[in-house]
Every structure is written in C-alpha cells, then in structure tokens.
Design brief:
By secondary structure, this protein is an alpha/beta fold. The chain folds into two domains: about 5-285, NAD(P)-binding Rossmann-like Domain (Rossmann fold, 3-Layer(aba) Sandwich), CATH 3.40.50.720; about 290-495, N-(1-d-carboxylethyl)-l-norvaline Dehydrogenase, domain 2. It has 22 helices and twelve strands. The protein has helices spanning about 40-45, 50-60, 75-80, 115-120, 150-160, 165-180, 195-210, 215-225, 240-250, 290-315, 320-325, 325-340, 355-365, 375, 385-400, 405-420, 435-445, 450-455, 465, 470-485, 490-495, 500, and strands at about 35-40, 65-70, 85-90, 95-100, 105-110, 130, 185-190, 225, 230, 260, 265-270, 285. Helix 10 crosses helix 16 and helix 17 packs antiparallel against helix 18. The protein starts with about 30 loop residues before the first strand and ends in a 9-residue tail after the last helix. It binds D-mannonic acid. D-mannonic acid (CS2) binds near residues 233, 234, 302, 305 and 383.
Length: about 500
C-alpha cells in the first residue's frame, strides 16, 4: 500500500494521463443518454460499454449509456465521482494496455427501491436497454426456461406491481410507464449467458405484463423487441490488486477499473424496435439467428470454464489459468470438447469449431487473467443446463457417449456436496441450490448412487427426460465415486488414460 495515493481518475485528470493511455475520441460534453444498461459489473464495463465507446468515436450519435444497478454493489458514488469515466485494462500474459472509456454518462443505484431505475427506463430518450443481470436475474426455471412463478421476487412483483424487485418485474413496469406516457418503442437486449436469452427475457416480461392486462401485453407485442445475443470477453471481478496495478503502471487511481482479455465478440439477433446503436460498425455482428454462435460459445468456452472451475477446485487450483496449466486437466478438457462437445454444434458461419476450441484453450491459459475458480463455480445450477446438460441431451438423442461431459456434471455435484457439513465444509458455495444439495448430502452421506439419484430429482435443473437416462445416471454415479474419493485427480487420470474403457457404454439392449 503506498502511503500517498496518486490522483484519482476524473475529467480533470484526462489531460495529464500518460500518452499510452487511450482516451475517449469524441466530445463527451455533447453526449446525451440513449441506452440504459442494468447490471454495470466488470463484464459490462469491459464489453458493451467499450463497443459503445468505439461507436461514439466512429459515428458520434446520441448513445450515451446510463448504468443502473438493481443489486449490489453500489456504484453511483464510485463511478459518479469519476464522472462515469473508468479504465479498461487489457491484459494478455505480459502485455498491459490501458484505455479510458467515456460512454457511461450516468449511474443510478436502485437496489432498495425500483423508482430510480424506472425513471431511467421509462424516459423517452432511452431507446435501447441492455442488461447483464446474471443467469439467475431472469428468475426462470433453468431446465425449462419458463418464468418461475414461485420465485420469491416474482411472487412479490405480481402482488406489488408498483414496486417491483426482479429484473423482469422492473422491465414490465417500465414498459407500462412508457405506454402510459410517450409510447416510444424500445429494444430490451439480454447480454447474459443463458440459451435463447431474448426468448427467455421476452417470456418473463410478457408473463408479468399479461397479468397487468391485455392492453399492456398488446402494446409490448407492437412496440418492444427482445433480440437474443451472444456476448464474449473474459473479465473477472475487479480486485484491489488490479487497482494497485493500474496505479503502479500508469500513475493514477481508478476504483472502477476493469481487467479483461484481448478477445471480444458480440453477435446480436437483427430484430430491433426503434433506433439501434450501430455496434455492427465496430465489430459486433448482426445476424438472423444467434443459436449456432450461442451454442458454440456456451458449450465450448463456458463449458470449459465451468469444468475447469469444479475440477480445478477439487484439484486444488485457485484460478482458471492454473487449472489449465495442469497437463492432466488440459488433456481432459481438450478430450471432452473435441470428442463430445464439438459434434453437438451446428455449423457456424465463418468459424471452424476445432480452431475455436484451440483458441478458447489459449484464452483460458492467459496468466494475467486471474479468474477465480470459485467465481466461475458460483450459481452453477443456473449455468450447467446450457453449458453441459444441453450437449449431453443432444448426444443421448443420437445414442452417443456422454462419459466425459458427465465427469463435468459430477464435478458440479461434488462441489456443493463437499461444502456440506457431512463432508467437512470444504468451502462456501454461492448458488440458489447450494442448500438443497448440501441437505441431500447431509441426509444421504457418501453413497454415490443415492447422491446422484437425489440430485437428479431436482427438476428445476434436470429435465425429467434427461434424469431418466440410465446411461447418464450410471456415468454420474461413477463420476461421484471417483471425484468424492481422496484422490479425485486419479479418477480424471483414469478417464484420460483409458477413455474407451473408462467410458460407460450404452447399456446393452435385450434382443
Ligand atoms: C464465466 C463467464 O463466471 C462465469 O460464468 O464463465 O463470466 C465468462 O467468463 C464469460 O461468459 C466470457 O465471455
């Protein structure tokens, strides 16, 4: 800790920054709000806000971003103090590149009360609403995608539509306010890693709106678009060490700094209401159907991250880059992706899946991105459907082997099991289903068959038709047996050394 800190980032500091720090290449004073973003975390600041900054530099227009946080942390003060400015560091092994992003013109904290969020979202100048509210922010049932009507926030919002708490409830109320005031169309663009995110968001908002009456539902049908999108850039939660790195390297403080890799991608379904920021002029792609891109990204890149996070924790590795530097885990991941994941993908225009696998593995090996395995492991119940279970379901439908992907699902199960009291509370798990799985572990103990059966019975995660697969169940039992043992990596070694032998064959059919 240096005794006297350097000056903090703000408009006054811009003129004094080292020349290697890139700065907004447009007149920020002339920038007016046009986009609202819900969930201004590290990912948004590294991704959509940077694309928008690029767009403003290329084609200046009324597309300033207003950030809204409806969940912790409070951000208005930190970012407000800096007039919305923050530094985006790109770190790629030894390279560090700093850039000040200027696209955020305002930040609103709306954690305690929806009113500040509603005021922004309902304002006529906002024509695009993007969001990164995490998988669980949609309050949907992961296995089916339907809005979870038993979710406490949804129960609350249906009973108190004037004071909503959930993201879909807040959006439905904002649309009602728009309808009643100016009536201007708007696009609601989900940027979270859930499958068919536009459809899931649209269903959630419409389900709530229908309860408010046909008039609102009809207005939404005519004036609101919910395109799907695939977003990508690895940008872990910012740490104190990142803030210190910036100060040491570039000589100023920035409490809102974000760190990301060089790679970025944004594929957006070309279905908008009203005016659209032309992000396609600065590297995003507008397409008719994002499904192939979304499968590629969630199954390969995210599937690898999730697998490395659970196997990584079990193997004693703290970060992704350390887990993938382990030759055994690297071998397992490459085998799983190549043999089982890639064959489930749809053809993706312009991308070779095998090249994408290699590119993804190289991205995960970036030693400057300190992505904690426990961070990626968070909310796994909301992530495994799209990352692991959907490819497993596709393979089972064709009679293909699922032994490697099942190791990853077993590792996801082992993670909360080992956090239960009965298994010694190895670590803390943040996941809406953590308590439920821990209770199962406390009740059942170490019997892998009973553990697998009880966890597979959680229908919100495992679709009953998937849970009914004998092959899947048997693979999970074998996986749990191995991964809950004293030497989980021995099991992974066994699977890698003898993939065909270790893989369970399809149960023989009786003639
Ligand atoms: C990660 C993602 O925490 C997680 O679930 O897998 O945040 C991942 O880094 C991004 O999707 C990369 O685009």
């Amino acid at each position: 800790m240096s005794p006297a800190h350097a000056a903090n980032l703000g408009p006054a500091l811009l003129g004094t920054l080292p020349s290697e720090v890139r700065q907004p290449a447009y007149d920020r004073a002339a920038l007016k709000p046009g986009i609202a973003h819900i969930g201004v975390g590290a990912f948004h600041r590294s991704h959509q806000a940077e694309y928008t900054d690029d767009l403003l530099a290329k084609n200046f227009d009324r597309w300033g971003l207003v950030g809204i946080n409806i969940r912790p942390p409070l951000l208005a003060e930190t970012l407000g103090r800096q007039d919305g400015l923050y530094t985006r560091l790109i770190r790629q092994n030894d390279e560090v590149e700093a850039r000040v992003i200027g696209s955020i013109v305002g930040v609103v904290d709306s954690q305690d009360n929806a009113a500040p969020a509603l005021e922004v979202l309902a304002s006529p100048e906002i024509e695009m609403v993007t969001m990164t509210v995490t998988e669980k922010g949609y309050c949907h049932v992961p296995s089916s995608g339907a809005l979870d009507l038993d979710h406490p926030d949804i129960v609350h919002d249906l009973a108190n539509p004037q004071a909503p708490r959930s993201a879909p409830g807040i959006l439905a109320k904002a649309l009602e306010l728009r309808m009643a005031s100016h009536g201007r169309p708007v696009t609601l663009l989900s940027c979270d890693n859930i499958p068919a995110n536009g459809i899931i968001l649209g269903n959630a908002v419409r389900t709530i709106a229908e309860r408010r009456g046909k008039k609102l539902a009809d207005w939404i049908a005519a004036n609101v678009a919910f395109p799907s999108a695939m977003v990508d850039r690895i940008a872990p939660a910012t740490t104190e060490a990142d803030i210190d790195t910036l100060e040491q390297r570039f000589g100023y403080r920035d409490s809102a700094v974000v760190v990301g890799e060089r790679f970025r991608q944004w594929v957006i379904e070309d279905r908008f209401a009203g005016r659209v920021p032309r992000w396609d002029l600065v590297g995003a792609t507008f397409v008719d159907d994002v499904t192939p891109f979304e499968h590629l990204k969630m199954r390969v890149l995210n599937g690898a991250q999730t697998t490395l996070s659970y196997l990584g924790v079990l193997g004693g590795f703290a970060h992704t880059f350390e887990a993938i530097a382990d030759p055994l885990l690297a071998t397992f991941i490459r085998l799983m992706l190549t043999e089982e994941t890639v064959p489930t993908l749809m053809p993706v225009p312009g991308i070779s899946p095998q090249a994408y696998v290699e590119q993804s593995l190289a991205r995960l090996a970036n030693t400057a991105i300190r992505h904690r395995n426990h961070q990626i492991a968070t909310d796994g119940s909301q992530k495994i459907v799209q990352r692991l279970l959907n490819p497993i379901r596709d393979r089972l439908a064709k009679g293909d082997s699922i032994a490697l992907l099942s190791v990853s699902v077993a590792a996801w199960m082992a993670y909360p099991i080992k956090a239960s009291a009965r298994f010694g509370r190895a670590w803390q798990v943040a996941d809406p289903f953590a308590e439920r799985v821990a209770a199962i572990a406390d009740r059942v103990g170490a019997d892998s068959t009973e553990l697998a059966n009880a966890i597979l019975a959680i229908e919100a995660i495992f679709d009953p038709s998937l849970a009914a697969s004998d092959m899947f169940r048997a693979s999970l039992v074998a996986g749990l047996e191995g991964l809950l043992s004293d030497d989980p990596m021995a099991f992974v070694r066994h699977v890698c050394a003898d993939p065909t032998g270790a893989r369970l064959k399809r149960p023989a059919r009786s003639a």
